[in-house]
Amino acid sequence: xxxxxxxxxxxxxLFNEQGQQVPCxxxxxxxxxxxxxxxxxxxxxGAVELGYGAQRVARENKKGERTPRGRRATKxxxxxxxxxxxxxxxxxxxxxxxxxxxxVKMSTLITSPTAYVGASAFxxxxxxxxxxxIKVDIFTPGEKVKVEGTTKGRGFQGVVKRxxxxxxxxxxxxxxxxxxxxxxxxxxxxxxxxxxxxxxxxGNVRHTAISIRVEKVDAERNxxxxxxxxxxxxxxIVFVRxxx
Length: 244
What we know:
Blueprint: E1 3-15, E2 21-28, E3 32-38, H1 40-43, E4 47-52, H2 75-83, E5 92-97, H3 106-111, H4 115-118, E6 133-134, E7 144-150, E8 156-157, H5 159-163, E9 200-201, E10 206-218, E11 223-227, E12 237-242
Antiparallel strand pairs: 1-2, 1-12, 2-11, 3-4, 3-6, 4-5, 7-10, 7-12, 8-9, 10-11
């Protein structure tokens, strides 16, 4: 499904017509340029590649001029952006499938690429071309969307925080308040079973929330108000996709 790349600004609240308070996450999604279009005949699936933000580019060094510090876009990224008519390479690139819309069978499109043209009524991305711009007005208040983001990284954590273990009793003499306890049998099977809930890295994983309601769309300020919370820290990149 077609979508848009945005940045999570934080949370606020709205009041609906019934006077109910609705917690919302505010996503700023500036217009996303289409940098590439993939068709079923070429790649085996239909998709559009969108860009968000801008990278810094290296100066054309003259004799005696010092190279500026910090990361700069590579020549490949600059060339890819130039094909799309952009002055600077986007900071984030993401492809959105356009052949998984309701009413379109993937097997039909693969076996018959010409069906892609006839299915354009079901494929929002079929009419997009390189250089087009996707804005927040593709969403309407009340519709359901999928929101994908990267959760906050919390480092190495114990089982109480990572898996929600209750822990041991907090009574006199007990020394196992937050320890995991036994992790396996002795003689049989004489090893720790794979997948055992143990301390370790927590967070910093991709998470997708489905059926998130769009409460408000502010096209002038490029803002989308999503009901509830979504994964990621403030200023984290999120991907908002239409949900069939």
